[in-house]
Amino acid sequence: MLRRACFDLTGLPPTPAEVEAFLADAAPDAYERLIDRFARLSALRRALGRHWLDIAGYADSDGYSDADPPRGYAYKYRDYVIRSFNADKPFDQFITEQTCRG
Predict the structure, then answer these.
(1) What is the pLDDT of residue 42?
(2) Rounded to whole angstroms, how far apart are CA atoms 71 and 65?
(3) Structural domain span for residue 14
(4) N or C: which end of the chain has fewer CB within 10 A?
(5) pLDDT, tens digit (0-9, with 9 covering 90-100), for 17-29
(6) How many CA atoms lie less than 13 Å away from 65 in the CB half-sphere?
(7) What is the tens place of the pLDDT at every residue in 33-63?
(8) Under the phi-then-psi rule, with left for phi > 0, alpha for psi from -120 to 50, and beta for the rest, what region is 55?
(9) pTM to 2 decimals?
(10) Helices and strands (H, E) in the chain, number of each type
(11) How far apart are CA 34 and CA 14, in angstroms?
């Protein structure tokens, strides 16, 4: 339940601390409170992050051949975009970070 809620509402898996806290919470409304906490995250930021990934052509695999080989480290870019939007990073900084080389 926790994993699905995290992916659906944040785009990321739960952190070890989130898993530990959720498992330690024996209250009958633990799941509802978890959903409420995630719901307080900005829906606009999530939507913008997903939109940015679509525009950037993000994919977990190549998808251009029958072999469809996975991109083993593609998730790092996805996580960076999600963290940037959730942190309300200034757009000029976000763009500059993506265009800098080495």
Answers:
(1) 61
(2) 13
(3) 1-41
(4) C
(5) 989 999 999 999 9
(6) 5
(7) 888 887 766 666 777 788 888 888 887 776 6
(8) alpha
(9) 0.52
(10) 6, 0
(11) 11
Look at 70 and 90; give whichever has higher pLDDT. Answer: 90
Same domain, 26 and 72: no
Cα–Cα distances in Å, from 19 out to 4, 11, 58, 76, 88? 12, 16, 27, 21, 25
Number of domains in the chain: 2
Distance CA 2, CA 86 (A): 19
The answer, yes or no, to whether residue 90 has pLDDT greater than 60, is yes
Q: Based on the fold, state whether residues 47 and 72 are members of the same structural domain.
A: yes
- pLDDT bracket for residue 66 (50, 70, 90): confident
Question: DSSP string spanning 23-67?
Answer: HH---TTHHHHHHHHHHTS-HHHHHHHHHHHHHHT--SB--SSSS
Cβ-contact 34, 5 below 8 angstroms: yes
